[in-house]
Design the sequence.
């Protein structure tokens, strides 16, 4: 297991996101001084695999005076995009979603454009392609900060006009989407309810409807989660494994049946403090990357190669 931190020029950091683009792993998060809803800035860094270090993050939009947050990176296969919110008021329910495209020739981010999402719509996890080919759709999990309801939205470049694709039942939010094929897909969500558990919804019609809603055995103390489909039928979940109102420990769990059961789990961080809001990614070398908020002061990075994942899975499962 490899461990590192992304350099952070701010006193505080939160809500990282990962993306793989043109052979490299990118990470983004927001940094702030005292209050996360005041004068926060988006930061973007690139992981240097040969050196085992993250680049010093750039602040793509230093000229924006309003507070920024919840960034996520994604690619449509052609370009790298950055979605994030700008607060028009004092809290997240005043947020507007913006989108920027990375200009490979200039090595800089283009001026962000406001999207057509209504005020209070939020993002957390990167969108996923439904399939390969010209009929593929990019599905973005979203949620409304005003009434705690999750949705899927779809769009095309320049990704400013996102249209509602489907809606999910109220309650769970911040979904991480898993697309098995053009028909079967699942979404894993953190709870806002008293049951303090991770929820899974399932669709058999390409995400148009979500009639199957399950409460998993994994707890959720009102904190962010992350899901990733690995290889050889293994899936991984990262979450805070407690029913207490706290964000420690930070745990990764493995399953081979869509988390109907757990096959193995291990704490990545434990002890007092906050280790939260994970983001997971498998790169082209089958290395599993994890970014997470570390004590609200920096962004932690862990990575596991394929043999390490399989060893952990088999040892605890055997």
Sequence:
């Amino acid at each position: 297991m490899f461990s590192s931190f992304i350099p952070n020029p701010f006193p505080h950091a939160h809500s990282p996101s990962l993306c793989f683009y043109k052979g490299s792993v990118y990470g983004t998060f927001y940094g702030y001084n005292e209050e996360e809803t005041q004068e926060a800035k988006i930061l973007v860094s690139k992981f240097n695999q040969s050196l085992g270090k993250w680049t010093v993050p750039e602040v793509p939009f230093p000229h924006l005076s309003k507070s920024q947050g919840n960034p996520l990176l994604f690619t449509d296969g052609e370009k790298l995009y950055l979605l994030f919110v700008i607060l028009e008021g004092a809290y997240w329910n005043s947020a507007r979603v913006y989108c920027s495209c990375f200009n490979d020739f200039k090595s800089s981010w283009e001026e962000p454009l406001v999207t057509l999402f209504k005020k209070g719509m939020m993002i957390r996890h990167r969108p996923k392609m439904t399939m390969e080919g010209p009929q593929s759709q990019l599905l973005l999990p979203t949620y409304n900060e005003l009434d705690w309801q999750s949705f899927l939205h779809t769009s095309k470049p320049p990704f400013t006009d996102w249209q509602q694709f489907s809606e999910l039942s109220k309650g769970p939010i911040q979904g991480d989407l898993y697309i098995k094929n053009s028909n079967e897909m699942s979404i894993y969500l953190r709870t806002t309810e008293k049951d303090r558990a991770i929820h899974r919804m399932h669709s058999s019609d390409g995400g148009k409807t979500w009639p199957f809603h399950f409460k998993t055995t994994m707890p959720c103390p009102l904190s962010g989660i992350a899901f990733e489909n690995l290889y050889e039928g293994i899936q991984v979940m990262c979450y805070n494994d407690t029913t207490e109102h706290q964000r420690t420990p930070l745990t990764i769990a493995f399953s081979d049946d869509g988390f109907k059961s757990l096959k193995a789990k291990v704490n990545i961080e434990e002890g007092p403090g906050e280790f939260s809001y994970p983001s997971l990614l498998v790169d082209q070398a089958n290395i599993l990357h994890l970014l997470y908020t570390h004590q609200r002061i920096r962004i932690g990075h862990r990575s596991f190669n394929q043999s390490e994942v399989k060893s952990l899975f088999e040892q605890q499962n055997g």
Notes: The chain has a mean pLDDT of 94. The radius of gyration is 18 Å. The CA atoms of residues 232 and 256 lie 9 Å apart.
